[in-house]
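REQUEST ID: PR-0412
SUBMITTED BY: lab tech R.K.
PRIORITY: routine
TASK: structure prediction, single protein chain
INPUT:
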Amino acid sequence: MEAAFVYGTAYQFVLTTEIALLESIGSEDIERAHLYFFHCNLISDLTQQCRRTLMRQPLTTLNIHAFVKTMKAPLLTEVAEDPQQVSTVHLQLGLPLVFIVSQKATYEADRRTAEWVAWRLLGKAGVLLLLRLTSWMTVTLQISNIKHLFPFRKRDSLEVNIPQHTNVVFRRAEKEVPLEFLVLTDIDSIISYVEDNVEMEENKDSDVEDPDLDIQDDEVAETVYRDRKRQLPLEVTMELTEETFHATVMASDSIVLFYAGWQAVSMAFLQSYIDVAVKLKGTSTMLLTRINCADWSGVCTKQNVTEFPAVKMYKKGENPVSYAGMLGTEDLLKFIQLNRISCPVSITSIQEVEEYLNGELYEDLVTYSSVSVLGLFSPAMTTAKEDFTEAGNYLKGCVLTGIYSEEDVWILANKHAATLPALLLAKHKDGKIESIPLAGTPAQDIVQIITNALQETFPEITVENLPTYFKPQKPLLILFSDGSINPQHREAILTLVAQKHLDSFTPCWLNLKNTPVGRGILQVYFGLLPPLPLLVLVNQHSGGHVFAFPSDQSITEQNLALWLKKLEAGLENHITILSAQEWKPPLPAYNFLSMMDAATSQHATGKAPGRMKEIDVQENDKERHEDKLTVKKEPVETLRIKHWNRNNWFKETEKSLKPHTEL
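STATUS: complete
OUTPUT:
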């Protein structure tokens, strides 16, 4: 299905489970899946059978991609240059090249032989017809005088140093491997030699302990495959269809999971979704449902679902609310629980305000929202109230928001030293209430203010929240601890924060018991796991330097301040430098991002890329004489997988309204 989404505009994809059809095609083992490529563009009479090519490799995403790429490549190409200098898509995909050496006297027979070999080796190796031109004409003859005879790669000299009796040249995909000059008597000998060597290389690769490229590139797919036999209690959620969708969401408040059964991320998130349903069973009035968009694509399209997985909340009389948080159990549970009330909630009395700010009004929801947000407005402040309401609607499921706009609002303003319109941020953990003026503040800025308030001053870093604190691109001041941190260490760092000494850093701590990956991080920094607790400064965004607080000093306010001054003065030596590692494609042919960039560039300029002239045996004689310097650009479609950053809610929302694709 992933291949169909990428190549569906260029090829017709067909799925069948009919045994009779499989047997008629000639599948060797109908108990397992097979993928055939049918070359139906070569026939004009519908009564004729299409030539077909069987994919021999396992059905993985990368193998299918490589298979389709070889089907798109020219079946046979004529060249007149050193075989070591030839480059084709087969080499990029890790496949060998077979050169059939041709002479003038035997050209037609050699070409027919090469075509037969090319069909037999399609998907296993690239086949080229190597023209031994020095036996046809003088080497010094200019290319311009003979280029009308056949297309080939331009070189200053046409002389190729090949042993006289060689009729096949074999080139392996690995670099620095010498050419093999062979004398083979028939087509079967060529096929056997190539297949034996390809099988040998595959066996050699299977002995290597490195992970498979598919698994290495997609750990989510690996996890789903590993848990494929895990039985989920799907009965705790209602499965929707095209017939039941509208009746269900109109009859009751519902949560709907839109997923694709063939996609790894969807199936991984389905487990979290079921976990949430189990936790809410018997306690929530919200109906949890799911619909497989692979089966009911029409419903998902009408609901404007353009990415999988997606979660939407449907309430009577309200527009659907999309979930845009982490794809995990806890964040989704928080989203559902906080949406039990319609935010921003309207508060009508000062007593209610006090209960709301103290966490008593919605006591059962305080555990899901560490901050209660209240907007204070006089009745005449219509525009300011509209902006705050817009921000509150946008933050549904993320934080509790309320609004107070009565005549006696000035009493609250005087109590909290606030200038109307104002924002009150009640942080339940600290028991503090902060006031922020909102005069002339647009909705997106209000969202940013509230988002910043949700971040802790000295947070515990986890895998889930690291991107939030990493985004400001400040150096991370991390206190590594094997358990809860020492209260004295916390107090020392919070004191420096209050004194503005750490404004240029992001102070945080990491509990190795809660986040075991911290041990691996420390081993990268130090080689061995050092004694804990340990304070480390990581300047990832500027050179990747890592500094360690002296282990022979206690973590106090004075020692920390002195150490930071030495760092600023350049008097401290780093313990290591983090390399700027890039995630590059395993092979050039798998560089999907460059393909998409090229397609976008071509579409913008209206130009198509040039290429070497080729002889493709799939074309008729008339087409061979046409100019093939331009090729039709193949449109590429990819499925966007959900990616969202809570620190940039409004910007990401605006971008999502524009049509675009991501890999």
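NOTES: Residues 135-158, 206-216, 606-663 have pLDDT under 50 and may be disordered.
REVIEWED BY: pending
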